[in-house]
Amino acid sequence: MNIVGDRDLTDSPCIGICSATALGDEICIGCGRTFEEVCRWNFLSDDEKVTINLRLAQNREKLQSF
């Protein structure tokens, strides 16, 4: 996150509503990551984090278009 509060594409997309680790859901209802992505986040490369965050942004755009 930068000085004005904008998220960087390597920041975790977590919004504090984790159903992946808390409930064992395959896809987290809070951020949209898979269980594996949530568990491995701190070990992923910056490129992997960017790829995931871009995919999540595309998914949000698709959902908002309905």
**Major β-sheet, in short?**
none
Q: Number of helix segments? A: 3
Outline, from the CA principal axes?
Answer: globular
Distance between the termini: 30 Å
Query: What is the string of SSEs from the N terminus onward?
Result: HHH
Strand portion, in percent?
under 5%
Q: Brief overview, please?
A:
The chain has 66 residues and is mostly helical.
Structural account:
With 66 residues, the protein is mainly α. It has a domain at 19-64. The protein is built from 3 helices and no strands. The protein has helices at 19-23, 35-40, 46-64. The longest helix is centred in the last third of the chain and has 19 residues, at 46-64. It is globular. The termini are far apart.
Which structural traits does this protein have?
66 residues, mainly alpha
Q: Helices, strands, pairings?
A:
Layout: H1 19-23, H2 35-40, H3 46-64
